[in-house]
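User: I'm writing a tutorial on reading structure tokens. Could you give me a worked example: one chain, its sequence, then its tokens, then a sentence or two explaining what the tokens reveal?
Assistant: Sure. Here is the example chain.
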Amino acid sequence: MGFSLSAGYGAAQAANAPFTTGRIFVVADSTDTNFNFIDELYRVDTYGLARRYSTITAALAACTAGNGDVIILSPLFTTALTATELLAAETKGVAITQAGKNVNGVYFEHRATATLPATTATPYFTVTGRVKITSIIGEVTTLVQTQACNAKLISNPTVGADVDLCAVLDITAAAVGAQFSITGTLANAMVKTTSGAGVFQAAPLLVMPGTIDFSTSATNTGATKWRVEYVPVDAGARIFAA
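And here are its predicted structure tokens:
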């Protein structure tokens, strides 16, 4: 069966896949709400090679070392690479990217608005591999209670000790629309901006697999939403809202 580059494998360009002289494979399992559409776009090619797989392992097995092959993960495929899959991707030189969340090489993830943690550290994002964070920005969506509350972001790795991504900021009475950001220097406090401009992260941070937690020292009413931008360091490394 033939295929149309504009309707089939060429759809990879809309997914922001890197340019490649190799082959494009897609990973999406049958529970994916877009499975039927993806299965139709990435069907068996004219040489009889399947282009859609249910696991990263199966897709990697179809890749040829040094060929410049690319694996695109469905936006709803959230399984992290195993150590074996990571080694195979690195050995074969396979690029692994997630569809629809890559703008000029920088990936992004949003966390929907939610109430503040109650005197605790709560996982806000899950990190599946080593990533370089270029910005992480929060926005107040419900006024924060007028009560002292020191807040910070923490890298909570699967292996090893926690690292604060910033020093604490008292977020008491933070108004709707206030922006929270970090500078990229671990010793600097998180920054709150209430005007029409804010502080953007000056230095990227290397963050390990695990979670990024938001910590508060008191139980305050209020709510925030967040956006993180990052560049994968490991093949297939991604960030998801926790």
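What the tokens reveal: Residues 16 and 102 are 6 Å apart (CA to CA). Helices lie at 11-14, 35-41, 56-62, 83-92.
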